[in-house]
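We emphasize that the prediction below concerns an isolated chain of 75 residues; any contacts that depend on oligomerization or on bound cofactors are therefore not represented. The input was used exactly as deposited, without trimming of termini.
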Amino acid sequence: MYSILGGVVALLFSIWGFVKWWFIFLDIFKGLVPLLLLVFGIAAIVSGLKRMQMENTPILKKKPEMPADDADEEE
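Result of the prediction step, given as a token string:
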């Protein structure tokens, strides 16, 4: 019950804050967009480089031969 009441109070304060300080919110948002683009761009480049590095590593296509059991040799 208290969590629902707290959620309603937080929702009302957030709506009030958006209405009262809308232009400040827009200024902050304008500053965050280039920063987020920078961070996500760097993450995409690093991810792509790691994927290229993993694709260029040789993969063992032939199964390694298993040593024969001693029981097979006796028969």
